[in-house]
Amino acid sequence: MKQLQPINNSVPVEKVIPDNMAQLFLPLYLKHPAVLKLRDAGIIMAGISEASAGFRLRRTPDFLFALFTRSGCGEIVVDGDACELEAGSLYLAPAGREQLYFQKGAGNWRFLWFHLKPDAAFLQPPPPGAVTGRCGDSARLEEAMSGFAAETVRSMRSLVSSDEQPPGSFYSDSMSLAESLRSFHLEVDASNQNAEALAGLYAELIFGLLDRAFLSLLARYDGDERSDCLDRLWSRVIAELGREWPLEEMASIVHMSIPTLIRQVKKRYDATPMQMLYHLRLKRAVQLLLSSRLPVTAIAREIGYGSVSSFSTAFRAEYGVTPRDYRRRQPGGGPFS
After folding, report:
1. Which of 71, 154, 168, 202 sits CB 3.0–4.6 Å from 192 for a disulfide?
2. What is the distance between the alpha carbons of residues 309 and 304, in angstroms, rounded to a whole number?
3. Which of 129, 119, 121 is CA-nearest to residue 252?
């Protein structure tokens, strides 16, 4: 059976997995059509865990970590900030921050978890820090995850009876697939009629439920937070207008993908990022023409134009006159060129 290459590079620095802890890792390492749907959506790893007393894991991941608590209680600490996780809670932790999570209380802690690519389209832009909220769909999500695992295996039934295991570097603490299915009472001996199609439908349901949960969770960032991010971007650009500003760098500053940056700028300003840069450069040129004695050649360099001719062409297109004529027409305009 062909397997996808491991892409999860996070190595736990502290890991305690009790022997009686049940875990179902979704088989996202397989080259199966339903698996590829989830991988293409940005889901690297996912599973259902029933954590018993003593479970704890500490790491600094290179992925976003989403955790849905189904029952019991756990706690997660990210950058020293602790959050108790009760039934119905949803927690999204950022990439690149140390996190510790563990079981609390007398009973087992049952939770669903997802490792997500930082550039997953349905999480753009990712929040700058950890976010917590509620999710009313966690039961349906668990059913979809269980159905996905069962139907994927039914369509590849030889997996359960073979000695093949997930890649150790990918799911290093995973049970065997057969043990995982048995621990969650998932039967795969039934007919495999339509199993591949059903696995695909379960994959779509998983993505749909995740998308809805995250849209609700991140709604608070759709307004002022994103506007603040863009304000900070333009302040940075204005401070360094004399250099090139590729889209990749602009998107990185606001923690957005390039398509999301373009969409957010269009939504707020009815312009593209490059049009905004063009506007800011010419606005600065007007300020310098009116308030300074700098020659036009120096102004062109200061706002990022490589030649006076290209600067003059852009300025004339915007204001109908050349920079020199604009300066001369203003009260007190001098002969500087």
Report:
1. 154
2. 13
3. 119
> What per-residue confidence (pLDDT) applies to 11?
59
169 and 258, same structural domain? no
Contact 327, 333 (CB under 8 A): yes
Type of residue numbered 297: T
At 73, list the tokens: 């209680």
Structure tokens given for 152: 């994927």
Q: Tokens representing 326?
A: 């604009």
Q: Are 100 and 82 in contact (CB under 8 A)?
A: no
Helix axes 33-40, 195-217, angle to 10 degrees: 10
- 8 Å CB contact between 109 and 103: yes
Q: Domain with 255 in it: what CATH number?
A: 1.10.10.60
- Beta strands (DSSP E) in the chain are 14-16, 22-25, 43-51, 56-59, 64-71, 73-78, 81-86, 89-93, 99-104, 109-116, 131-134
3-state secondary structure of 194: coil
Give the contacts of 294 (CB within 8 A, at least 6 positions apart): 288, 302, 336
Which residue, among 90, 94, 130, 101, has the nearest Cα to 211 in the 3D structure? 90
Answer yes or no: are the C-beta atoms of 122 and 42 closer than 8 Å.
Answer: yes
pTM: predicted TM-score of the whole model, two decimal places: 0.63
- Could you read off the pLDDT of 268-308 as tens digits, one per residue? 888 999 999 999 999 999 999 988 889 999 999 999 999 99
First to last CA, the chain: 72
**Do the domain assignments include residue 6?**
no
How high is the pLDDT of residue 258?
Answer: 86
**Considering 220, 254, 269, which residue would you say is the last residue of a domain?**
220
